[in-house]
């Protein structure tokens, strides 16, 4: 019996889907301890935008360690943090005229969401949050109340209060997303918020993802998201944009909402921000909201992660070069071109997504499970998401070589076809 | 204006206490970007038990990176994780006959506590948790409900339900800890739990620290903790031991409760576990409790931190050598010998703690603040904790050289004396 | 200064609208202590269906008192209760083949709703309740969470959890009721309840009024209410029908939903049930739901009100005579005929209602307030309800003499016309 | 099968203890429909302080009905209410220099408590309430959260939040009341409230009974209650005194706390206030608290109960005559003299109480049940209360004739002796 079977908690999950022991990895390729190699279309659930062991990041991190750079420093100042913040401000915030402050917290996405909820409640003096169907925002109690999936909510063991869910306004109509576009929902909310006898009060914030990744790769309708922001402004609520999985270049722009013409009050980032897989989380908070914090109110031991700042600084450098995001968009088109014919071929298949995040809804969790297992057996890592796990998500590193991308796509399409044919 | 003043959130805290930019660090010494050097009696709030840039860990981590070891892998298996788990089982669990399973989650202490609360509620089918006055357990909503300090609770913005607090049974009587020993509280609870008309129902779990670090370095009375465990067993509740700050060698044994003769159902670890400052969190959960988890119910992107496993594996190796903990205990005695005379000299001073964690209660937050500032100006990093911030905490790296320890202690004692004399 | 100004709480309300001291009353006429007479189109907010000091009830009550009938007996058996229950079973339940049990509780509508919520939660093992926009269900914390009006909710002082509101499916479209018919809402809920990632879980119960009286006299669409019942059955939730204000003959049948072809699991009654104004409340609960109660779980000192049983028994007798309800329907038509022309005359006026409950929406709370004041000055009691108090409600005693009805209607129409003309 | 077995809810309780159908009653004697007669030592759970069908009240009520007095009027003014309020102010409030306002609400004790909680939360801007072990305050969700007994709490079906319980400071030490006197608890709370790191925040109010009737006839220690009031004042919390069962003359003075030298901010009254068993509830609220109400914020259909005002006015008249309360105190001494020897005779028996409310703790619910059944079979109505139902409560009408009192006491003592002898 392996140490994992002997001693690891029953909660372990992905290792059941990929029952091998991984050893080394480089860019989009991963090797197990038996020497088997895998193309990685999962990228650490969206963390490894720049590939495993990105060479530029490796060098920067090793140099930093060799010169005894401060590794851990809570929220004290460090030169590593200084450099990261300067780069982020210059490359990301200033070109967009974003006045937002950067807040670092415990280095997990859920912690970023918790901090966002706190400051929204503080700044508005309200308690209620509106989140959306199929939204995923984390596992700690405050964030979990915003997560829609009952498989996670059911583990809370206590009621999840002060959050209500409304139908997400997806670009594409899906069977579990009854309101395509969802414009009516916004107008309906407006009426309800105005009516003192409706039982509805304006919330502290609306918490939304541009692209619901875990929720099944549902892309928000642009007009809907704009309407939502307009409603938020009207009723004195904040707009919190959770860009933890879809941000940091994944969709072909740094923020997933760069072409949505919106201006969120708080933006949650994590996953890809640190560049190569060490933890980091950061909220961007408008100064007029941020000023409501008192020093040290939301602490966290690991909130200053120097290695993540060092590698993350290298990640930001990618965005200084316009050709990088052009490449992402180009690869995204390649992915879509290969995968979208599945829609025509199988009535139960729907392809959704943006840039280098695609979701292939294969109609049932069983189909998806089979496809994931077959791909793995064939040297490709993909994972399922969405309602009942029926969507297979493709999120290769943005830096994946063209050849690996093609190989992986071919493998994927082959197995979807096989499974869908067998299922029909 | 520095980038920090321009762009960092108002919530930043420690950087206001130590208003410099740190650059490099080695073992117990830290340098700022102006070349000033500081002896570190804070150790990253208890993270850096093995010092900054511990040589053994540096080498292991760099080797791992150089050979393209998998850095990020969620809860998939990796060779780094395998090695860590095997070492931990062999060095820590097996000698103690501990059957506990290891659960990894988002790498923050608060996340470990959230997971512990979930499994306790699930395993017992109950909702309520009992925590204790001055307890500190984290910032996310579930853990925050257990944290006693109102400065943190007040930021929640929503009611913190399903947790009640009872007086902590401290070894030493303190003015904010009205029940010395606290045995009566346990007996009182027993009567209340037995009485169906008391308004009290047995909780899912009692959540307690052996030593309340953030709470002011309050050491639990041994008998009280045993009585608490007995009460928990009697009423069908779990005992969750939060050893996040006091564990991993800090008190002269691996677990802070090794000499308490108790057997907690769940143990939360984080901070020092990763060895050199990269994030990690782990719960040890008895199999009969752990079996209530369903796969993937408490996920987290960064729950498999390979660098922390690699460095943490080196940390575990320290505990294979009995002389290491002897050294810790010896240094602890040195600290106590130097500091305890302050108690005799100043009636308002009380010294508390165990091993290499000492708390010097200087009677008021103002006194403590002055001492911290004076020490910093004199090249020593210490921080305040406890009710109103009136306790100065001394937690140097366990690996601190004797000379640095002596220098630091002398500096500290000198400034306490100066401030206390001025205050009287 | 009167005793009321000196000693009555600032919370007093209706006495500010009708600033006189009432002394005597008979059927639909009320006199103040100065001898001024008023026609009563308010009937104690729907209590006095059989008029003030109904002769039959007076005689029965006085006889009961004179013979020393037990007046107060909690939930012990009494001959008064026996007679009431036998009459109710024979006249109301048996002809409808209703197997429901009768539960008596503290004699207020809010208490009936609290008991209904408890048994629904117990019977289903669920916590959440769905109530509807503009619904009114009472003032105690459990019922208040179901009441939609923020003017009442705001007094709770604590969050009102475990209840969510959905748009009421009104027969007529109104500006504050955005979804006319509301069929889509039911279908939308069905999809959301089926989807494990929607954030929506089926509730313990749907709590609904056939006619929202306090909410502005909104009549439920028949098909909508049937669809709601179908959804409830499908997802394992109970249907609780709050018939406290609209029941007991008010709409031309005993239950307000007699012609809706539905079969609620729990029906809440109070107000008119006791016949002449002494308190009583009763739930009708299907046996398979009722069996989940343990004896004495929802107690209440005043739950056996003998005078209310005695008078209520006389009230039931009215329903043995078919001509009584024919008369109610006839008077209802008279009311509608007189009032509905206001709709044609004023674009802002909408008339809603059923039987002898009419609501005249006059577009604003200011208009309604003026109309109520003018009517009062002219000897007619009416009261406002609905969002912002913009609906004037007409609920005369069912026993009102034809002449008083005509006089009152003429007064009312006259003042509506005057105010609406002035407002346009 | 009787109509009760056929159609009454399974929740019915007292009728199972007294399985007969009561018909008539006069003062302390009740007759069933078979002509059997019972002496009533239960008095409608404390409602019938002036006996069944009190002659003075009967006459006043019949006169009122005969002259068509307004029976139901919500919170409009009426001459009946005017007279009641004037009498209450003159006889009860003015002699005590009490500036309190009178607030009427839905006529149940639980409704009075709900209103008290609302105004306390509003006036302090706080949410938490402190109630006490064995306290009983009602069945609706807000009041139920304050009630300690799990048999009632368990029926809520949702968490009961925003209330915590502390040990009641009883005059006599009991096995389920671990802290005799309880002075330490108050001092402990004071320390905890002062300490910002204790997890304890001062509440909106302390809600307490002078004598816990349902809780087992526990009499509050005088000093403890004074200390509690002092603590409340210190921390800015209100003192709410629930005098619903013990008030209105029961203990030998109008308020049960008349000799405690305290000055509660809010006093809840109901039960005995209406005199002869028709429902009424009233809060006395200090003007500086009451002014926080907005008109109509806590409504209730039956909040103006004219018959209760009429009969209640007669009840107040009793307190104009000093000899009445002297008589009550005298009868109380008679009761105590007869019953207290049981304490000496049986080690498991403890006698508690004040005035004409005695509780005889017979050590177990089984003993108490047997005594209640034996007494009933022997023509005496008594009921059980307290933890596990182990206390038999004696609360005869205050107007009981000396002979009935003696007969009842003899019956009671005889059956206690028989049962306790059999049990030992």
UniProtKB/TrEMBL annotation, chains A, B, C, D:
Keywords tagged on the record: Aminotransferase, Pyridoxal phosphate, Transferase
Matches recorded under InterPro entries: Aminotrans_3, Aminotrans_3_PPA_site, Dat, PyrdxlP-dep_Trfase, PyrdxlP-dep_Trfase_major, PyrdxlP-dep_Trfase_small
CDD domains documented for this protein: OAT_like (cd00610)
GO molecular function term, any single one: pyridoxal phosphate binding
Listed Gene3D superfamilies: Aspartate Aminotransferase, domain 1, Type I PLP-dependent aspartate aminotransferase-like (Major domain)
CC cofactor: pyridoxal 5'-phosphate
Entry-linked Pfam families: Aminotran_3
NCBIfam families: dat (TIGR00709), PRK09264.1 (NF006733)
Family: Belongs to the class-III pyridoxal-phosphate-dependent aminotransferase family.
Protein name per UniProt: Aspartate aminotransferase family protein
């Amino acid at each position: 019996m392996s140490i994992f079977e002997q001693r690891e908690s029953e909660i372990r999950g992905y290792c059941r889907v990929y029952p091998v022991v991984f050893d080394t990895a480089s860019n989009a390729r991963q090797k197990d301890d038996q020497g088997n190699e895998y193309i990685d279309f999962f990228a650490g659930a969206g963390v490894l935008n720049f590939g495993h062991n990105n060479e530029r990041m490796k060098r920067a991190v090793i140099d930093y360690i060799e010169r005894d750079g401060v590794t851990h420093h809570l929220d004290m100042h460090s030169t590593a943090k200084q450099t990261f913040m300067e780069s982020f401000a210059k490359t990301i915030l200033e070109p967009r005229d974003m006045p937002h402050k950067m807040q670092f917290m415990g280095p997990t996405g859920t912690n970023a969401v918790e901090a966002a909820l706190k400051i929204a409640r503080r700044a508005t003096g309200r308690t209620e949050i509106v989140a959306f169907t199929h939204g995923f925002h984390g596992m700690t109690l405050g964030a979990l109340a915003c997560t829609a999936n009952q498989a996670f909510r059911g583990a809370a063991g206590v009621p999840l209060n002060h959050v209500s869910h409304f139908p997400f306004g997806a670009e594409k109509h899906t069977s579990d997303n009854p309101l395509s576009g969802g414009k009516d929902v916004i107008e309906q909310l407006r009426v309800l918020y105005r009516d003192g006898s409706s039982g509805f009060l304006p919330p502290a914030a609306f918490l939304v993802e541009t692209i619901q990744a875990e929720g099944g790769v549902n892309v928000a309708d642009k007009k809907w998201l704009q309407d939502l922001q307009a409603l938020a402004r009207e009723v004195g609520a904040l707009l919190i944009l959770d860009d933890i999985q879809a941000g940091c270049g994944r969709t072909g722009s740094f923020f997933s909402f760069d072409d949505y013409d919106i201006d969120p009050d708080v933006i949650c980032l994590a996953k890809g921000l640190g560049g190569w897989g060490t933890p980091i989380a950061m909220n961007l908070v408008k100064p007029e909201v941020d000023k409501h914090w008192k020093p040290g109110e939301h602490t966290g031991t690991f909130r200053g992660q120097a290695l993540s700042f060092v590698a993350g600084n290298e990640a930001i450098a990618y965005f200084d070069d316009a050709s990088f995001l052009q490449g992402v968009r180009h690869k995204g088109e390649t992915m879509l071109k290969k995968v979208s014919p599945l829609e025509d071929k199988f009535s139960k298949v729907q392809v959704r997504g943006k840039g280098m995040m695609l979701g292939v809804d294969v109609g049932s969790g069983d189909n998806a499970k089979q496809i994931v297992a077959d791909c793995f057996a064939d040297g490709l890592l993909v994972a399922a998401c969405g309602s009942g796990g029926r969507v297979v998500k493709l999120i290769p590193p943005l830096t994946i070589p063209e050849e690996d991308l093609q190989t992986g796509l071919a493998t994927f399409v082959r197995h979807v076809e096989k499974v869908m044919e067998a299922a029909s």
